[in-house]
Fold this sequence. Notes:
Blueprint: E1 2-8, H1 22-31, E2 36-39, H2 48-58, E3 61-63, E4 65-69, E5 75-79, H3 83-95, H4 104-107, E6 111-113, E7 119-122, H5 135-144, E8 148-151, H6 161-164, E9 177-180, H7 181-186, E10 194-195, E11 198-203, E12 217-219, H8 228-237
Parallel strand pairs: 1-2, 2-3, 9-11
Antiparallel strand pairs: 1-12, 4-5, 5-8, 6-7, 10-11
This protein binds zinc ion (2 copies).
Amino acid sequence: MTSFDFHIHSGLSACAEKTMSPRQILLQASKAGLDLISITDHNSSANVKTAMDLASEIGITVVPGIEVSSVEEVHIIALFEEYGSLAEFQKIIDENMPEAENPTDIFGYQLVYDCNDEIIDTDDKLRQIGTNLGVDMILSEVRRLGGYSIPAHVYRYKFSLISQLGFIAPGSDFDALEIGSSQWKKEKFKIGMKIEGYPVITGSDAHFIEDVGRTSLNLESSEKIKSPGEILRLIARLQPG
Ligand SMILES: [Zn+2]
Ligand SMILES: [Zn+2]
């Protein structure tokens, strides 16, 4: 069995708790029995490399990922097989971030950590806003880089496909749809179910360390799966049961 959560924030997201360093996230995820996680900060991935460097020591797989905001303010989780592809995608995001400084008194700091929980940098750019990239552009760039796009918390009252666009378009290049974890539990979603033809998953969207591991999905597998693509392909083939 492989237990995974593709949606976790670190202290690099202004809205997340500052104890959420890569090491503390991985330790908590390991304690909770997760095999594979992604650290998905808002329009930023500066803590991912550190998390990947810690992965083998802590015994967890870290999938390179990010939560990108489109120009329509739709949040999309982008996952990659290789760190280099995420780094390429980050360059595209940085070229398309509106020039604005993070008002720390309103949003909080955006922190970069080393492997030992030391804060080594602060990101002063405002990241909690939409980029200049449309949803379609994000989907095509992620695909071009060999990655996967999963619109986040699709029914949430803000920053979702439904709140920003009003619909989930069939035939789009989404690899899955993420249902917010409380809705997932309340409405008894299961992997194998589909909406508009897209497989559904959930993620913790953890902003506090104790929320890491509270939400996870389990996929039957004889060996631990380490590739996000493999997980998404398996889920797409499942029947609800
Ligand atoms: Zn979000
Ligand atoms: Zn999030």
